[in-house]
Automatic annotation (TrEMBL), chains A, B:
EC number(s) recorded for this UniProt protein: 6.2.1.3
Matching InterPro entries: AMP-bd_C, AMP-bd_C_sf, AMP-dep_synth/lig_dom, ANL_N_sf, ATP-dep_AMP-bd_enzyme
Domain AMP-dependent synthetase/ligase: 12-353
Keywords from the named record: Ligase
GO molecular function: long-chain fatty acid-CoA ligase activity
CDD domains per UniProt: PtmA (cd17636)
Protein name: Long-chain acyl-CoA synthetase
Enzyme class: ligase
Tagged with keyword Lipid biosynthesis: no
Lineage per the UniProt record: Bacteria, Bacillati, Actinomycetota, Actinomycetes, Streptosporangiales
Domain AMP-binding enzyme C-terminal: 403-474
Pfam families per record: AMP-binding, AMP-binding_C
Record bears the keyword Magnesium: no
UniProt organism field: Planomonospora venezuelensis
Length: 495, 495
């Protein structure tokens, strides 16, 4: 009990330590920490009256909203598990999630996609949700007490043809937040604009780190460049969930200088962007942002910001984890050799919901097996090589799509590229590149293949190059199943 | 297992992630992380051969040395408990510690004070220690695996006439380090000069945070201004354990500018100091350093750096703890009222070694009772009022010595002051001030009392003022038992 710190506890402390600080901004909604705490208590009591007990699941189906944070914190207060579901998924996919997770309560947003999906007893976001919350008692909820219990479920990529809900405990989320506070050098007053999808760990992890340090979370349904500008100006936002083309869109939306974006302390991107914002010197922003991560490690496992001038593309581990590069037999491989990236530590997940066999397989030997290949460089930094199951076997050689994709993207005419393995009678598999050319860019298949040969070992050169208008994506990574289906991939030895 | 991160694990990760980084500098000794890891393995195996198993205690008796860190890490590797004992204590006090802790191994430094204390089988620091370590096997130590197990024992102030060993687990120490990394904005490359005593949590906590981020720990036996200058220059030290008069001594030692101290990133102190060093902008250095802490919370519980412009003298809680101000019946007192500072969270200790009754009393209701009084201000920040057991009852009024002491120290002629309660027939107790005047300062007892009356409620004014050449201290705080004995204190209602 003395060592416990649940997400609910974090909120309870802020309600006392930061009575005047704004916790949440969402459209007309503005809540101080005491106000958020009071609403979360009512919501928890209302959910409890619906039968949500410790261990039960609560589902959100909708775009970003302060209700996502409220439902997560109310679930924490009850010892229950909250899942923000992907509202972009199809009705079939959602039906699978509902059957898999069997939530005791669903809060759902009326929208074009989700409209037809209403179920018995579902609570509609907006007025119905407010009425439901207001009906909850204001009395203190009895302490649930166990910060090692799962509190957040996020569905992740399918390993066996179906998605799996990664379970994260309060302890893991608090630890991961601490690592982000360290690397991003977040301070009280930090204001985060939640414009990326909250069903994805990439946005959720910054939302939670902002909560942890007692900052302000601003919610907007989804990315809209003009709205991002307006909110940054109005709320003095410190950081938003922005990358490459999104940043360009923000720069374009503010070309006339209508909005003051100087409160944004962010990574250097372009002369226009740097002039509009404040280039930040924290390790997270100073180097190339990011590192290596996945939902199962709470977000980030390694940080580029902890390894300036690193040889490895993924940087060094967070101060709260250990990483080992392991061979299939569980032994550690020496630096320079490729093996599976495995991890232990304070921010790791608690397994997948209702997947005992998969959990046993992925935690064998007391290490979480990420399913991704990597290696240690001579300087101790980590290189992410690619997903283990996508390794291509060509003759006796292993080819990792990510490596070939990086080489392809350095060709001046290439906008995007993905690599798959296609069955080959003689070599078992052959490397095939699917390439998207830039507007006005031209290159032949031979030129593309030769470009890769100039950068990598000759056996990694694509034997087949096919041009396409776009690469299908799952989140930020190529949808390899769709690519295999469309371009004839298969015969992977790791599958 | 997946969530485990012991201090030994932290070292094992750095040995892989930071193969070229210097972990330790101590005189002629320079060790990279892989070298430190290899020595710690040998030391752990040598200690195991001596019978040190999980839960057994290992004692260090000596000044600062890299051996302190090695023994702590080797103890962690074995699941054992390491105690760096206060080498300044008397033979009687040490005899109590030896009897209380019953260590399986003692490493001890020959010195004037500790010389006569040698015991059977004790290992002398220096050549004997090196020989002992070299005799240990280089084989990997079987994993101990439990980061919730105590690994560090630090003796703290007596509550009942004898000191108690506060037990800190790896999990608590790792969490506390994370909070320091956040507030001090420590980064890889951080170099800490261990010039304060490592048997005190104040130096130990920075040593461990430096380990956590993969920085460099420089050891020097004790504070020496010239040696501090030399080491800062030679090792490019980022931070040392320096306060007020120590900083003035460093400035004096470097008056001629012989040493380059610009690598020190520290708090602003004086024009000369600021010119020699780099004034740091982290929350820890930006505001007045510090906050409220004690060994039992891992070091710091609250930070001034998390509460710029705070009303409360102690700032706001670390992001990894909760604080409650509780009445004797366990209920929470409202803001503005004084109660006991109580805490929960990731950095808290695991109780005192071998003190079941005290542990039960101090953890009642699931909250660690610090034994200190405090209050929440209207802005949510915390004020430390003073030790609960030292509260003075004068008439129906409670008087807290710390408050009166702060008022006394604002008098221009006062160098130092301490306040006790003396028995009083009419009022139960009366406030008595023991005052040290500055060189050349003059003030009468009446002037001193009137000065306090001008700052505080009239009943807090000292009825008795006695002048002294110095205030007896225990570490950084007045030794109230000695003061009571010398100046007639007693009759405290909290005792």
């Amino acid at each position: 009990m003395i060592h416990q710190l649940t997400l609910s506890d974090v909120l309870a402390e802020h309600a006392r330590s930061r009575p005047q600080v704004t916790a949440v901004v969402d459209g007309e909604v503005r809540l101080t920490y005491p106000e958020l705490d009071a609403r979360v208590t009512r919501l928890a009591n209302a959910l409890a009256a619906r039968g949500v007990a410790a261990g039960e699941r609560v589902l959100w189906l909708g775009q970003n909203s302060h209700a996502v944070l409220e439902l997560l914190l109310a679930s924490s207060r009850l010892g229950a598990v909250f899942c923000p579901a992907n509202w972009r998924q199809s009705a079939d996919e959602l039906a699978f999630v509902l059957d898999d997770l069997a939530p005791k309560a669903v809060v759902w947003e009326r929208s074009e996609t989700a409209g037809p999906l209403s179920g018995d007893g579902w609570i509609a976001a907006g007025a119905d949700y407010e009425e439901f919350l207001a009906g909850g008692s204001a009395e203190a909820v009895p302490e649930s007490g166990d910060d090692a219990a799962p509190v957040l479920a996020l569905y992740t990529a399918a390993f066996d043809g179906r998605p799996n809900a990664a379970l994260l405990s309060s302890a893991a989320l608090v630890a991961h937040s601490a690592s982000l506070l360290v690397v991003r050098q977040m301070e009280p007053g930090f204001t985060f604009l939640n414009n990326g999808p909250l069903f994805h760990v990439g946005t959720m992890m910054f939302c939670l780190a902002t909560l942890q340090i007692g900052g302000t979370n601003v919610f907007t349904p989804a990315f809209d460049a003009e709205e991002v500008c307006r909110l940054v100006d109005a709320e003095k936002v410190t950081q938003a969930f922005l990358f490459g083309q999104m940043i360009d869109a923000v720069v374009a939306a503010n070309a006339g200088g209508k909005y003051d974006l100087s409160s944004l302390r962010f990574v250097s991107h372009s002369a226009e962007w740097d002039a509009m914002t404040t280039v930040d010197d924290s390790p997270w922003c100073r180097s190339k942002m990011g590192g290596y991560g996945q939902t199962e490690v709470g977000g980030m496992l390694t940080f580029l910001g902890l390894a300036p001038d690193a040889a490895g593309f993924a940087g060094r581990p967070s101060p709260l984890v250990q990483v080992r590069i392991l061979a299939p037999d569980g032994s550690e491989v020496p630096p320079g050799e490729t093996g599976e990236i495995c991890a232990r530590g304070k921010s790791l997940f608690s397994g997948y919901f209702n997947r005992p066999e998969l959990n046993e397989a992925r935690s064998r030997g007391g290490w979480h097996h990420t399913g991704d290949l990597g290696r240690r460089e001579a300087d101790g930094t980590i290189t992410f090589v690619g997903p283990r199951l996508r390794m291509i076997k060509s003759g006796n050689e292993n080819v990792y799509p990510a490596e070939v994709e990086r080489a392809l993207r350095t060709h001046p005419a290439v906008a995007d590229a993905a690599v798959i393995g296609v069955p080959d009678e003689r070599w078992h598999q052959a490397v095939k590149a699917v390439v998207v050319l830039k507007d006005g860019g031209t290159a032949s298949a031979e030129e593309i293949a030769e470009h890769v040969k100039g950068a990598l070992a000759s056996y990694k050169k694509p034997r087949h190059v096919e041009f396409a208008a776009s690469i299908p994506k799952k989140g930020f990574t190529p949808d390899y199943d769709a690519l295999d289906a469309a371009y004839g991939g298969g015969n992977y030895p790791g599958s």
